[in-house]
Specification:
single chain; mainly beta; Hypothetical Protein Tm1070, Chain: A; 4 domains; eight-stranded antiparallel β-sheet; 3 helices; globular
């Protein structure tokens, strides 16, 4: 008998915001033809049998209707992964599909979704982003970064009903000062397992300042929800082609961790963060940055409930990092109230960008898995991972790379990480034994049991536009 986790004991993993083509979308997504890919990893020793069911989004002509695709269950050997590029590998999903997918398995699996725009011609910029599948949905989800015409950036939010009954979903907005915006509130009905996509640029009641709307939100329902936020720049040139995704947060903490932070890195790569106070009282926060052997700190001003501390690292007076400093490292945010946060990174010279979510001690473990990792795949796709030590003592981590094509562990490496610090591995240069045409998955272990968290990044060395993407490692 198959076990189910999250719903009556079944292993249930939900992937929100699956886009197969823009022409079927009723709201205001970025222009172009959009497609998706799914990477599924089996972190167990036993072979997992998996089934995928797609559900049309609310607002489409087929809202709530299900498509089982592939039509038969498939298997993934223990420790390995499998990739589905939807247009090529899942032709039973129709063109112009917009919605979500539910994976069921007899053993727990993890997954990510990649959403990308198909470029037309050599001068049309690529755009791509990644987000996690969700196996712990919640009735209350926080989204700390929402934008409408904010320096030409707009977000849209995919909210998936993860249960077998129709859900009423309430989307509440807050300004950058933490003020509730009741006029902008949205209330919708979402069919079982289906998705509703909220486009912030379609919400006429979101107030615009000189630079647009930059706020946050709280999404609630009587059923459990999975949420993915997508953000898009104008997309008219390579430099403004940025497209990012991040997962909504289901809980906060008074200490959160950010494994990868860059400032003036290779001149143009710049990080920032947005940390939302989800408590009932004003919050005072402190950021501690670790760049190798150098540590910097910065205290926040008073952050009202619902509001966010917004920091661009290259802005020295705001971040506390010395002007002109260049490096890559990690950060820890401590707060007097529970918070949630995201990290965004951009390179405006070429249009690269991504967003990742901050980690908490509660969500962290001593093992992190990454369903997708590439090295010189098709000679163009290259991944890196960054691991942060959330513990109190130095830990040695072991990193195991498994090749999806040959179905063997290709390479094992290790490294020491001090408390609060991070360490990175880049496929082509740091792990040369991976060779060419590597695509697979990664498992990272903390050898002395310290909690760790990690970020995966990937970019294409050839295509024009935003080919830089990232996703949070999954604690197992």
């Amino acid at each position: 008998m198959r076990k189910i986790v999250a719903i009556l004991g079944l292993v249930l993993l939900l992937v929100a915001s699956m886009l197969m083509g823009s022409t079927g979308v009723l709201g205001g997504p970025p222009a172009g033809t959009w497609v998706s890919g799914i990477q599924i990893q089996n972190p167990n020793t036993e072979t997992a049998t998996v089934e995928m069911t797609f559900y049309w989004a609310a607002g489409t002509a087929n809202a709530g209707q299900a498509i089982v695709c592939p039509t038969e269950p498939f298997t993934i050997a223990g420790g390995l992964s499998r990739t589905f590029f939807v247009p090529s590998h899942l032709t039973c999903v129709p063109v112009n599909f917009v919605g979500s997918v539910v994976l069921t398995s007899d053993y727990p699996v993890v997954a990510i979704i990649n959403t990308q725009k198909t470029p037309v011609g050599n001068n049309d910029p690529s755009r791509m982003a990644s987000a996690l599948g969700e196996n712990i949905p919640a009735t209350k989800v926080y989204v700390p970064m929402l934008r409408k015409d904010f320096y030409n950036r707009n977000t849209y939010v995919a909210v998936q009903n993860t249960e077998a009954t129709t859900a009423t979903v309430y989307f509440n907005y807050y300004s950058d000062k933490g003020q509730a915006l009741p006029a902008a509130r949205e209330v919708v009905t979402v069919p079982a397992y289906s998705t509703k996509i909220f486009y912030q640029n379609d919400n006429a009641n979101l107030p615009l300042s000189l630079n647009g709307f930059n706020g946050s939100g709280v999404i609630t329902s009587t059923v459990r929800l999975a949420v993915v936020v997508n953000q898009a720049n104008a997309g008219t040139t390579a430099g403004n082609s940025g497209f990012e995704s991040y997962n909504g947060a289901t809980s906060g903490a008074t200490t959160i961790y950010m494994p990868k932070m860059d400032v003036n890195y290779y001149t143009y790569y710049q990080s920032g963060f947005q940390v939302q106070n989800i408590g009932e009282e004003p919050a005072y926060m402190t950021a501690t940055y670790t760049f190798g052997n150098q540590v910097f700190t910065k205290a926040s001003p008073k952050i009202e409930p619902g509001s966010a501390w917004v920091v661009f690292l290259a802005n020295s007076p705001v971040s506390g990092i010395p002007a002109g400093f260049s490096g890559t490292g990690a950060a820890v945010i401590e707060s007097t109230q529970p918070v949630v946060g995201v990290v965004n990174e951009t390179n405006d010279a070429v249009g690269h960008s991504y967003i990742t979510s901050a980690f908490t001690q509660e969500s962290a473990t001593d093992t992190v898995v990454f369903p997708k990792f590439d090295s010189l795949f098709y000679g163009q796709y290259n991944s890196g991972i960054t691991i942060q030590n959330l513990g109190t003592t130095t830990t040695t981590v072991t990193v195991v790379f498994s090749n999806q094509l040959t179905q063997v562990d290709t390479q094992v490496v290790s490294g020491d990480i001090a408390p609060g610090a991070s360490k990175s591995w880049y496929g082509p240069s740091v792990v040369p034994a991976l060779g060419t045409q590597f695509t697979g998955s990664v498992v990272v272990f903390s050898n002395n049991g310290q909690k760790i968290a990690g970020i995966h990044t990937e970019f294409n060395t050839t295509l024009l536009g935003d080919t830089f993407t990232a996703y949070n490692g999954i604690n197992n």
